[in-house]
Write a structure and sequence with these properties.
single chain, alpha+beta, seven-stranded mixed β-sheet, 4 helices, 7 strands
């Protein structure tokens, strides 16, 4: 099944829906290590920060309206030497998984990151032994395994690893 959502840059009107999607992952999963869901105001600050940095924040509009998912690239580390390296994040509304939307968002994010001057994109994926979809998605788009951090987080009574994956992006222009 293919998701026909339109992918476009995020805007302020999308942030309530983004907050709702992400809250599901904070409260009901170990996919993110966050334990308190960011508010819409927090997402407003994130959108403003990423926009000021020239980094992409994309949404997928659901075919009948609403937001089906989102993806963005944020700074990998604060030091200036890392300015061409970013970390990607992709989250889908629970009723929009398994339809190819993650692939479409990641493809659009890779293009937007290359255009923004990102040369290395890092994926940090929580691994509780039950999340094969995210590493598989990243591998399909050319990410390679860069390492594993063992038992670095705990959430919902579980110790969690992270898988680090990396993809080089070609210079644009």
């Amino acid at each position: 099944m293919h998701d026909s959502s339109d992918i476009r840059p995020a805007r302020a009107a999308d942030l309530d829906a983004i907050a709702a999607i992400f809250t599901h992952y904070v409260t009901d999963t170990v996919v993110t290590f966050m334990e308190t869901a960011p508010t819409t105001a927090d997402w407003e600050r994130k959108l403003a920060d990423l926009t000021a940095r020239g980094l992409p924040f994309l949404v997928a509009e659901a075919p009948g309206g609403g937001i089906a998912g989102f993806a963005y690239a944020g700074p990998w580390r604060a030091q200036h030497a890392y300015r061409h390296t970013a970390e990607n994040s992709i989250y889908l509304a629970p009723d929009h998984t398994g339809k190819g939307l993650g692939s479409r968002l990641l493809e659009a994010l890779l293009a937007a990151c290359a255009e923004a001057g990102v040369r290395q994109l890092i994926a940090v994926i929580a691994d509780a032994g039950d999340n094969a979809a995210s590493p598989a998605l990243h591998r399909r788009f050319g990410f390679t395994d860069a390492g594993r951090l063992t038992a670095v987080g705990t959430k919902h009574g579980r110790w969690l690893d992270t898988i680090l994956m990396q993809r080089s992006l070609p210079p644009v222009g």
